[in-house]
Design brief:
The chain has 99 residues and is mostly helical. The protein folds into two domains: 3-49, Orthogonal Bundle (Arc Repressor Mutant, subunit A), CATH 1.10.10; 63-95. The chain has helices at residues 3-15, 20-30, 38-49, 63-81, 85-95. Helix 1 packs across helix 3 and helix 2 (20-30) crosses helix 3 (38-49). It is elongated and about 70 Å long. This is Mos1 transposase HTH domain-containing protein.
Length: 99
């Protein structure tokens, strides 16, 4: 059985409320020679709990989404690295450290 098919079955168990032990025991009984390990099942359950519902192995995003993330990161860096001078001056006046 292909590993993607195992991931789909793991997702099926997760969505039906089965825990990792139940999923592992079913895999061991149905596929004794090729069943995924308990750590693999736990990793995929953790992934599904984080709402990453893809059954594809690895991380892939579209070019458009990648560009959007890059633009957002640039905006965040500008915001955090270069605070406006006026807010800094207001803070200095508030604390009472004006020169």
């Amino acid at each position: 059985m292909d590993k993607t098919e195992f991931y789909v079955l793991i997702k099926h168990f997760f969505l039906n409320g089965k825990n990792t032990v139940e999923a592992n025991s079913w895999f061991d009984s149905e596929f004794p020679n090729t069943a995924p390990g308990i750590s693999t099942i736990k990793d995929w359950y953790a992934k599904y709990r984080r709402s990453e519902m893809s059954t594809e192995d690895g991380f892939s995003i579209s070019k458009e989404e990648s560009d959007q993330r890059a633009q957002l990161q640039i905006k965040q860096e500008k915001f955090y690295l270069r605070p406006p001078v006026s807010s800094t001056l207001n803070l200095v006046d508030f604390i009472g450290l004006a020169m």
